[in-house]
Design goal:
3 domains; Receptor-associated Protein; mainly alpha; flat; 396 residues; 5% strand
């Protein structure tokens, strides 16, 4: 995000500066490191294209991996972060790490320092570090978080890869259909109009469409571009995305898989926090934001039941937060006292189940999608050539 600063320069003159940073404090830090005295900071407004990504996020996983390596090599925490800051190329990220080092040198804990920068370090990461400070095992906690994030990224990439080919089919099919309707059909309409051929009903509709496009081509292209931009902006709107998500959630088969995906991510998160030493109720509260609003209410009820002394497995089952496999593994975790590991196993089992379902769905959906696109394009072509077929039949 870009910020406009009004500052007093080293020579005593007031200047207007432009910096990019994660937040106002980051931009201010960059200016002060160059000898400026900042008087005012404001976010710089600008027009953002709908397909353009927002401000680049802090590479948290990479930072954790590098910090873990330095800690395992024997460097103290402050020196390790200072080393990462010195080799950071992006000014806003370097300023962020320098501020973390400055807070640590003031005597604050690592989790307290991270908590001051919520845009870079999410609450889950801060909670993981905070739990590790009680047991003095920061390096293992960072290792668990990196493994956790890599597992989530692997599932996310698998879902994205599975959707690439269907999206490519839809895009190519839509472009071919658009080419036929906007370029080819208007030219066929001229031929039939000049010949005075009697056309079937659907062919007449297609010819009328061709005349309309030919007479208002610029307007039609403008409308199509406007609709595409409006759709892109709508998809970036949180309310619209929430409504689309709610519709998908109500879909009979897809809704169950979305619930299973969220439960797998939830159990993996809770398992990581429990293995890091966090109490169960605090871990459940931390994982609440990972769930759909419907499941959040169920989790609140399950947490109340657990706080009243009921078993975790029974509370989760009563509120619809388990599957048959998850219920059995939770019961085993209660008996063995190793709930964190059991929740990890639940997540792994459900991830494999989701992967199998995605593979099956794509194998079924892709040929169906190809058939639908072929039917649409074929119908347009047949309607264009139908009068020629009828004319050939009358000649025979």
């Amino acid at each position: 995000m870009r910020f406009e600063l009004k500052a007093v320069g080293p020579d005593g003159r007031i200047e207007s500066l432009d910096f990019q940073g994660l937040d106002e404090a980051s931009a201010r830090q960059q200016a002060e490191s160059r000898g400026y005295t900042v008087l005012a900071v404001r976010a710089k407004a600008g027009f953002a294209l709908p397909f353009r990504a927002g401000a680049e996020r802090f590479p948290l996983t990479l930072f954790s991996q590098e910090l873990l390596t330095l800690l395992q090599a024997g460097l103290p925490l402050v020196e390790a972060i200072d080393t990462l800051a010195a080799r950071e190329r992006r000014a806003e990220f370097r300023a962020l790490l320098e501020r973390v080092v400055a807070v640590l040198r003031q005597g604050s804990t690592f989790s307290s320092a991270l908590e001051q920068f919520p845009l870079a370090f999410p609450p889950l990461y801060v909670a993981t570090v905070h739990a590790s400070e009680k047991t003095s095992d920061l390096a293992p906690a960072l290792g668990r978080y990196v493994a956790y994030q890599n597992q989530l990224d692997a599932i996310r990439k698998r879902l994205v890869n599975a959707s690439i080919y269907p999206m490519l089919l839809v895009g190519v099919g839509g472009l071919v259909s658009l080419f036929l309707l906007v370029y080819v059909v208007p030219r066929f309409s001229h031929i039939y109009e000049d010949r005075g051929v009697n056309l079937p009903l659907f062919s007449r509709i297609l010819v009328a469409w061709g005349k309309m496009i030919e007479g208002n081509g610029t307007l039609a292209i403008g409308l199509l571009v406007g609709l595409a931009i409006a759709a892109a902006y709508a998809l970036r709107n949180p309310e619209v995305r929430a409504r689309i998500g709610a519709l998908l959630w109500r879909a009979p088969a897809l809704g169950e898989r979305l619930k299973l995906y969220q439960l797998a991510r939830f159990y993996r998160t809770i398992g990581m926090l429990l293995r890091g030493g966090m109490p169960l109720l605090a871990a459940l509260s931390m994982g609440r934001e990972l769930l759909h609003p419907v499941l959040r209410d169920r989790l609140a009820a399950a947490s109340r039941s657990i706080s009243e002394g009921r078993p975790v497995s029974a509370s989760m089952e009563q509120n619809g937060l388990t599957t048959p496999v998850a219920l059995r593994l939770l019961a085993v975790g209660e008996q063995s006292g190793n709930m964190g590991e059991m929740m990890d196993r639940i997540a792994v089992f459900h991830d494999e189940e989701i992967a199998r379902w995605v593979d099956w769905f794509t194998r079924l959906f892709e040929p169906i999608l190809m058939a639908v696109i072929g039917l649409v394009i074929g119908a347009i072509v047949v309607l264009m050539y139908m009068p020629i077929f009828e004319l050939a039949g009358s000649l025979q």
